[in-house]
Amino acid sequence: MRSFFRSSSPFRLxxxxxxxxxxxxxxxxxxxxxPLYWLFITAFKLPAAVNNGPFYIPFVDFQPSLHAWEYVxxxxxNDTVRLFTNTVGVSLISASLALVVGSGAAYxxxxxxxxxxxxxxxxxxxxVLLAVVFTVLGVPWPLAVAVAIALFIxxxxxxxxxxxxxxxxxxxxxxxxxxxxxxxxxVVIPIYVVFQQLRLLDTWVALIITYVATNLPIxxxxxxxYFASIPYELEESAQIDGASRFRIFNQIVLPLSLPGLVATFxxxxxxxxxxxxxxxxxxxxxxxxxxxxxxxxxxxRGPQWWYMSVLVLIMIVPVIAMAIALERxxxxxxxxxxxxx
Amino acid sequence: MxxxxxxxxxxxxxxxxxxxxxxxxxAFILPAVLVVxxxxxxxxxxxxxxxxxxxxxxxxxxxxxFVGLDNYRKLLLGNEQxxxxxxxxxxxxxxxxxxxxxxxxLGLTVYRAVRRRAxxxxxxxxxxxxxxxxxxxxxxxxxxAPAGRPGTLVVTMLYVVVGVACQYLIGLGLAxxxxxPLPGRRFFRVVFLLPMMITPVGVGYxxxxxxDTNKGPLEPLWIALGMQDFAWSNNAWGARIAVMIGxxxxxxxxxxxxxxxxxxxxxxxxxxxAIVDGASSFDIFRHITLPAILPVSTTLILIRMIExxxxxxxxNILTNGGPGTATETLTLYAYRIWRALDIGGSAAxxxxxxxxxxxxxxxxxxxxxxxxxxx
Amino acid sequence: MNPKKIAxxxxxxxLVLAACAAPPTAQPAAQQPAQQQPAKKFAGITVNAITFSxxxxxxxxxxxxxxxxxxxxxxxxxVTVPFADLYQKILNDFATxxxxxxxxxxxxxxxxxxxEPGYLEDLTDRVKADxxxxxxxxxxxxxxxxxxxxxxxxxxxxxxxxxxxYYRTDIAKELGLQPPKTWEDYLAFAKAVxxxxxxxxxxxxxxxSCIAKxxxxxxxxxxxxxxxxxxxxxxxxxxxxFDLETFKPLYNNEAFARAxxxxxxxxxxxxxxxxxxxxxxxxxxxxxxxxxxxxxxGDIGTLAIEEGSKAKDKTGAVILPGSKQVLDRKTGKxxxxxxxxxxxxxxxxxxAPFAAFGxxxxxxxxxxxxxxxxxxxxxxxxxxQPAQSNVDVTIxxxxxxxxxxxxxxxxxxxxxxxxSEQAAKDYLGAIEASLNSPNMVLDLRIPQNQYYQGIVLDxxxxxxxxxxxxxxxxxxxxxxxxxxxxxELGREKQLAAYRATLGVQK
Lengths: 341, 375, 506
Known about the structure:
Strand content of chain C: 5-15%
Number of helices of chain C: 20
Oligomer: heterotrimer
Shape of chain A: flat
Structural class of chain A: mainly alpha
Strand order of the largest sheet of chain A: 1-2
Distance between the termini of chain A: 26 Å
Distance between the termini of chain C: 74 Å
Radius of gyration of chain C: 25 Å
Shape of chain C: globular
Number of helices of chain A: 17
Largest sheet of chain C: 5 strands, mixed
Structural class of chain C: alpha/beta
Number of strands of chain C: 14
Order of helices and strands of chain A: HHHHHHHHHHHHHHHHEEH
Largest interface: A-B, 131 and 126 residues
């Protein structure tokens, strides 16, 4: 009995601990897998099998049917393929761009010290306000923007200089994350108008720019901590050897923070993949993405659970595959318990 | 917050500041700042304008009629007040106790700031205390009062507090377990990631299917518990719990994966040394692991908290905000009236949300910074 | 980089921007290369249509669109978006001048919000000049009310939406019950079924009445279906929502209170989670055989005969139950029906069938190019013509319900679709009775009706059903909410619009 509760060495887990761990982990895994199982079998059920009460086991409780798959992949197959391609393309590109731009910014926020003057910021805000007021009053927007920029540059060398008080890196970081606070419903019409004026509606470009911009704060915040934990001495010696910042960043810092990069990439990918409201408004026929198809299954007839399940499954599979492939990079092999597994 | 390890590398007199070194600070940060500015600044200001006006569709375009603070007045003081704040009533004894406790803590903080002669901080804390007390009273008078009914503001805060707390604790527990040298833990790691991968509307519909008392898979369970006639969707708390369960199910992976990466990124020597010294797992966790993951944890909670305030898909799809207004959140409220063309009112709600979350986030960041001792 | 350089670069950028000061033009519709065959009327023209994601409505649009292309050479693109966001998407597109759509297939209830700012094309002359359309065959109600605003035609109906009550013929026979004629009958029927505690053959309970009462879904139509019989008795032109002179809401009086009582009582005989069921759930319950009564649009008829349905050949339909007491608008009291008060009463019962939602119709964007508008009209007309329409309405999947007189005169199509002759007679009889009723209720179509119904009415009813407030408080909330919006938008304007939709000349 004693050997059940004790382990053979301090570095290994006792069987008791292993049992308890498996029980808890197994329980949570069941909580996750059961709903997914339900989703999976619903994709194979006829409407009657869904409406007439819970049926659990295919071939035993109900006859599985491929009608939902046939509908999604054949009848509206062209649409499904187009939506899927759009989702994949937009998400991958957005996540990659966000990662590149965001990690650069995160690195900068941990290594450099910025002191943007309060005066500059206020003047900038004032000029934007002016531009918006002009546009609302009827002035064509390129003219308003040009006037605002000119005013800004002028005041940059006069008024802004007056106020000495400056903000810090943390304020910049906070400003970035505060962009996530406003719910999409509040910003969707303005963003729509911006892209309409730029003639970019219903294109990948509009979606990519929007997704990169909305997800940058997350990338910055997550990567900041990873970069901060990399000791500066490594970079210092490279600097003394004459390497440029860019090289240091690319060749020393990034490889060391690979787990963080991979995890962040996955997050942003998932966020872009699954986003609904902005995709709805910024797209028309050509650039529509998969979440729109999922919501669309809630027709006036009521939710068509079977089609919805098929679409959700189609949406999850690539992301899961990617997660499995990238998961090994998230764990760097340093484990509590110290046995390399 | 994250420890900033150093300032700009101070060149020694022997080094020239190279061109790239000069450009680097700007080059690294400007792309991010510009992109975010481009997308965020116009909507922010336009939303502000919208919240101060009434939008109408006229021949030839949109007509914005400036109405000043009327939208806010309607929400905070007028006939929409009940939806936002709920029905306040006399708090129970327990409720009064909570209020007293919070007041005492805040008073102590202000007092301490004054003692330290940090007068600016004291005034800041005074202002924060006023708002916090107001919010606490709102919570107490609706949730801990027998006759009170919480409005969208309190319901949103409830989802955030309970949701984020549960997600963090469960995520941490799972991460710690998965960081152990268990055979087969890769399987668990992948499985635990899954819920986050499903599109939020998909999760909403999934849970609606699951929770259906008539044809959902839990039907035998309900019958076994004698609850087959109980409609969770009819019951205010039943519906809220359903939403919270869905939310926790969906977002625990977010906490899990980040915490797991942080736990595994710890330096191994201190841990090994502690084990050799005979420290228990609990001690190792408390003295080594926890401090190491604290910076990441605080970031994580902040990010997740900001996202949680925007929760909309689950209450929308499960109950459309019902029964009555029991599960409606601020964002759902804004979305509902936005669809009915009250764009000004919707923008006003969004701005109220903005003030609330900025306030809480600032408070959170400041409180933590002073605790963690970073600048 | 010194400040001067920065300044000059940005100034250059500003100049470039100022040079792009050309105002945006409406996106031109894409051109197809001209077809080779001559005499294809609309060769080379692309029509962009938008509706909600089907398969209802979208499927027949695409199918008929292809046929139309074969016949005329035009290309029809059907764009779909989720139903809940269709209204906003269309409005956004028109209001911002993007004009991506030439044809919109939408709910006529939203018509006013699109007509007032001048987005929709006036179709009156085109309709008059089109004999193939057989406009006279379209039901009177849809012709004169649904498609018209202020005397001009703006939409082509493709579908007829009104609510009816469905009942289980087998249960009625078993329990010796008659199909309900008044709402009191409905309650009695539901109560009798509920007390019997019937079950389906796989052990599921059968509920007396299943009504979709979910918040922010269809509940606000259901309650109007119940209430209208108490409120409107003098014909469609009397209106069922507001007073014709003062525009005061008619939802705060004895009549509406009685309707609320009835509405709440039906919950007792329904499934336990009825207030979270939307129409998809109640339809599911109906085809699973678990409901004895329900209020719904025409879909139940065609759904019941689908494969796997347990209600096949057991589904009967009646015109919406009425009331023997109606509102006397002068006194505000609920009084018994008299020949003067209820001229359209049948056997002393005032019926007011409710054309909830209106029935999907097609309209044309005024800002489209003339040749595109011609093609668009021909397309809508094609779908609407009896040859196509009469087949489509018998297929449940299309989402099109009958709206033409010829559609329920001829039972053949229906029997071919799988209905028994009795069921077809029943179903079509109920539709006919509703369509021909001179007291049909037109759904609210004033500007921002979404707010009046979807926010104020729906919110108040949801709280009432959840037990958060009583009848008096509910009615007060509705009245106050409506009045406040009316004041905001201008009472005279709203009154004028209301009267215009009812065809009431001043």
